[in-house]
Description:
The chain is an alpha+beta fold. The chain has 13 helices and 53 strands. The structure holds alpha-D-glucopyranose.
Amino acid sequence: MRLPRPTTAGAALLLLAAISQPAAAAWQTIGEVTRVERAGNAVVFATAAGSALAVTLISPSVVRVRMTPAGKPAADFSYAVVPGANAGISPVVVDAADRVDIRASGAIHVVVEKKPVLSIRIYDGNEHLVVGDDPARPLAFDAADGAVEATKLRPDGELYYGFGEVPLPLARQQQSFAFWNTDAGNYPPGSGPIYQTIPFFIANDFRAGGRSAYGLFFDNTWRSHFDMGARDPARYSFGAAGGDLDYYVFTGGTERSPANVLRDYTALTGRGPLPPLWALGYQQSRYSYTPQAKVEEIARTFREKEIPADVIYLDIDYMDAYRIFTWSPTNFPDARKMLSLLHGEGFHVVTIVDPGVKVDDKYAVYNSGRDAGVFVHDAGGNELHARVWPGICAFPDFTDPKARAWWGGLYAKSLAEGVDGFWNDMNEPATFPAEDSTVPVTMFDASKTFSLDVKHAGDGSPGTHARYHNVYGMQMARATNEGLHKLRPEQRPLVLTRAGFAGIQRYAAVWTGDNIASWEHLALTVPMLTNMSVSGVPFVGADVGGFNGTPSAELYTRWLQAAVLTPFLRTHSAIDTEQREPWTWGGEFERINKETIELRYRLLPYIYTLFAQSEADGTPPLRPLWFEYPRDAKAALVDDQYLVGKDLLVAPVMQAGSTKRRVYFPKGDDWIAWWDGSRHDGGTSEFVAAPLARLPLFVRAGASVPTEPVIQHTGEAKNAPLTIVIAHGGNGASRIYEDAGDGYAYRKGASRTIVVTQGDAGIELAIPANRGFQRVAALEIVGLDAAPREVKIDGKPTTARFDASTRRLHIALPNEAVKRVALAK
Length: 825
Ligand code: GLC
């Protein structure tokens, strides 16, 4: 379903010719502009092919283009966009004979050429071209099957990142791929589509000095595709099997920076809310921990071995024959007792809840769903039945507000029993072949979901599964999230989802599904998770150790290190694999795994601060190097390192048997090794030692990173004093965020932000009054070659402890009133 690729010169004529054959099932462009009108904030163009195109400035750095092939736009409705976030601003419009200029003064400038076919160019406030249509075939559609496609010119050297969850290398130039949420367990690197659809990318041209970032979001829920120059490096295209060509371009503002692009994209599609602190601790899962006594034993072992952990997951076997919202009477005879015992040990518990509701007229959930009329119906009007874990199931239509409300209410029972969080799986939606089927099912088989003509309510815009498939999982996570908010408004929910669409960050954390216990899959986690992050989804993680297959002791230990500072940290393993807890391999491995998880807990105050920032401005905790260093061409393709915030650089070992690795230190900052305080110049590459026990970790010179002592779970955080680690030899200010760790009082001011500034005169602290938060107890300056001659706190000499082997100077603070700490050489 793509346009033929004529040469640029011949293309316009060829496509114009196509317009004159309306009966042919073929691509056509929308033709030349026949009329221009204002409609509220939009400028609307009618075209020769009978199409309509509306251009709306959303803000001084965002424009929306919506093309409706048949000319009459349907209701303006989007699951991705936060209601009201695309209302737009009033533009300045100049309508000339051959073109229309649409501007926000001093900022975005959109040029719409009227002839020979409508085409669009977008400029930033400095009149630099952001992105322009391929004039040969700017916007096209196929009237016969409803497909739409846009084509843009691609400057040589422009790279693309984001696109949510795609198991491909870091940058997506000259790649092509599709979006259709698919239960693609064991997905081979380079394959797809897998579980999520996020048709958003950030472009950056490093050769242009890094002032050229922009973003594009294609808001279309149908099966969609992107070709980022695979067929022709001079152009890229995107399109879908139906719907409008509805897309947003983000210019990146005056700085043309990736961070601005993401800020604007998340202003449109929403930001990941601050999770409860416990959800940032270490999480242990398995398919499945059963029976009850086993779960209790796992929890006890963590505490006995003093390996910190916060969450235990119960996979499908906790249920009674996989009926959701039930417990197995044989394996979990007293779930409430188990849950209260686990709570007593400082654990939170998350249960899996799949969408399939077993068809069984003795099952209360099914009966209530059927009576409430919330299940999906097929094209013939019958309740859709398909096989999943429990056998034949019915499926809630999560695009129906009534079904979402019903679904949300079901969690009341689980909350009353003591379950803390919920894991929504199989929500692509995934179905199994009929029991008697003899047709082999392949990984990306179309039969693995509902048939395309199944009916959905579409929140008042009814449509088929072909239209709503890609939002099913997101609307399920939304129903869960909204239900939890309603049932327990004072607590922050943890919802984990496998499927999603753009905007999923508003409702859930995301994990990358059924990966494999291989070094190759470990390496894939960095490009996958960082690309998810820059696609607006801050709370992401991959199953540690790889879901399918049993990792070697070394692979698990390295995987845990690689994952330990990723936002969502969970070990999970498939039913037919060997046991997998941090202690499974004993001896040296157990000791190292324990230390690795301890590192997570030491750095939790920093990770928490990053989530607060992410809620405020959309900047994700996990960042690819290019995101912070868009002018450093050497950072552009680094796919085996990542940044946590802007201050920590992680270079995990992801090759069997390696005990050293090459690290690239991004240009513009110097980097101090976390473990020994050695200094590394920005813009250089170096081999660093990485024995099995060591995760290569660096802190940006000038940064101040809050740490806490090792605790066993986040319930102990309140009384754990902070030590602020300050990387010597750079100037800068860092902010440290604190609040109660759960609830919403922080939105009414119950939080504080500590500012630490490193300058030539020393270290300045601005510590606001403490209203029950973790107190600041010490500073630790890392990267000093020798002990200073003298340390002064607010002008008074004090004693400090220097450790030459780690180049760390420990300075205990007498209280939080300290304003300045100075070192004399
Ligand atoms: C799916 C999930 C996996 C889970 C399993 C059983 O494969 O992706 O995480 O363990 O189902 O529920």
